[in-house]
């Protein structure tokens, strides 16, 4: 039986349908079960909650207090934990545990036939892919599934703020960012790790999430021979995702003209996959869009829908980045 940070939570961890455990201060615990939030009959008091936080943070050398009221950590089984304490958390300490799923996810279990065909070809042809969607939509799960199409001889370096990826690839190096210690020293950022990964002879680089200045190194990697790289971004749709990435690049490299930023993005990102979660908790791919070459004087990078809710809309115009892969043609209805 897996180790849990507090015995009272054991029944929740033993339920394989539970994907997140949410403690909103003393009282009843919430869970996400089968994609739907549910209130449980599990109760925790203030003392138990503080003991839980101690047991989570102690082994990993992290701390949380009034001066640093927010912290991320990882349980021994890989589950991700976010903790917020007063005065930021008004009603008492809050603990959010996103459970780590062992084993590999098959792409066919997440996508419809047309989506599986297109995405499998895209990975094998070394397309650069950005997965976008809201929090909890299934972006990380889809990244894990995409990796099943990576060749066995390819070296993949993954970079995350908090390690969650478990890629179904033979040769994987996992890197995780590190916050500063109590003296404000020793921080290793995602941007630092992306820069370092370029010296590690990667065939592909996978960044768990782009959210800041690391986008500069990621775009640089995609443009300098590290084709077939993946990442995720929080966005409502593919168009919003491109605008967000554009804004991040401009914020990180203020001297770059907007036209140059758009040329870089249009050249390095091939596909954007939009995933969403329905009100019933079902996660699915809503759209797969292809990034188009930047037209002279265009106000922004344009996109072209290839698949919408599992129905093919058009054929990719971009050719494969790998010389070993033939151009794409639809073979599903």
Automatic annotation (TrEMBL):
Coiled coil: none annotated. One of its GO terms (molecular function) is ATP hydrolysis activity. SMART domains: AAA. InterPro entries: AAA+_ATPase, P-loop_NTPase, T2SS/T4SS_dom, T4SS_GSP_E_ATPase. Gene3D superfamilies: 3.30.450.380, P-loop containing nucleotide triphosphate hydrolases (3.40.50.300). Residues 125-279 form the AAA+ ATPase domain. Signal peptide: none annotated. Pfam families: T2SSE. Belongs to the GSP E family. This is Unannotated protein.
